């Protein structure tokens, strides 16, 4: 499992005993160092001080398929999703906490007001499901918006897209 931006490890703590290997990618050096201290003695934990958007995911993941999770910064939601979709052949699924309005656009049906480019992009390669709405009160610091958990099940060859580069440009 890849935990993107684990922060102090609230989710990682729950995952560490439930997965074969836990890879945490944390951009903040102080937090990454703290995570390294807290994970001493755990053979199945890797902590990388790096920017997820710049990490060589192919190299990091290796030959296995993984799942990914994150409570992602709302301002880079689409970039993180795009990055995960780029390496979808290595990913089984990813589950992300994001701003509720973005989640609603991702899972929107064609012909609805909220359906748009992010809906097309995500639904072309995954089957996204809105799992939970989360109150701002459960976060610290408390955001001014509601959040939602979305699970993206990666679907291989969902559509025949002969030129993905062109597809990405047209959708954007």
Describe the structure.
It is a single chain. This protein is α/β, with parallel strands linked by helices. It is built from 7 helices and 7 strands. Strands 3-2-1-4-5-7-6 form a 7-stranded mixed β-sheet, sandwiched between helices. The longest helix is centred in the N-terminal third of the chain and has 10 residues. The protein is globular. The mean pLDDT is 94.
List keywords for this structure.
seven-stranded mixed beta sheet, single chain, alpha/beta, 7 helices, 32% helix, 172 residues
Task: Give the number of helices.
Answer: 7
What's the pLDDT, averaged over the residues?
A: 94
Share of residues in strands: 25-35%
Instruction: Note the gap between the termini.
Output: 29 Å
What percent of residues adopt helix (DSSP H or I)?
25-40%
Q: Tell me the overall shape.
A: globular
| Poorly predicted runs of 5 or more residues | none
Name the helix and strand elements from N-terminus to C-terminus, one letter apiece: EHEHEHEHEHHEEH
What does the oligomeric state look like here? single chain
For the secondary structure, the number of strands is: 7
Q: Radius of gyration, rounded?
A: 16 Å
Provide the structure class: alpha/beta
* Largest beta-sheet details: 7 strands, mixed
In short:
The chain is of the alpha/beta class and 172 residues long.
List the helices and strands and how they pair.
Blueprint: E1 2-4, H1 10-15, E2 22-26, H2 29-38, E3 45-49, H3 57-61, E4 66-71, H4 77-86, E5 91-99, H5 100-106, H6 117-125, E6 126-134, E7 147-154, H7 164-171
Parallel strand pairs: 1-2, 1-4, 2-3, 4-5
Antiparallel strand pairs: 5-7, 6-7
């Amino acid at each position: 499992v890849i935990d993107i931006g684990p922060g102090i490890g609230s989710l990682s703590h729950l995952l560490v005993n439930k997965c074969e290997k836990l890879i945490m990618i944390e951009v903040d050096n102080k937090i990454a160092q703290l995570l390294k201290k807290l994970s001493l003695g755990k053979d199945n934990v890797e902590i990388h001080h790096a920017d997820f958007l710049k990490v060589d995911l192919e190299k990091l993941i290796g030959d296995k398929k993984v799942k990914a999770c994150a409570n992602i910064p709302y301002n880079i939601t689409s970039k993180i999703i795009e990055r995960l979709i780029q390496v979808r052949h290595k990913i089984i699924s990813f589950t992300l906490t994001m701003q509720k309005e973005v989640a609603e656009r991702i899972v929107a049906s064609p012909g609805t007001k909220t359906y748009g480019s992010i809906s097309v992009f995500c639904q072309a390669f995954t089957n996204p499901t809105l799992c939970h709405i989360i109150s701002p009160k459960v976060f610290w610091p408390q955001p001014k918006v509601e959040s939602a958990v979305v699970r993206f099940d990666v679907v291989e060859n969902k559509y025949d897209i002969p030129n993905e580069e062109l597809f990405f440009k047209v959708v954007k």
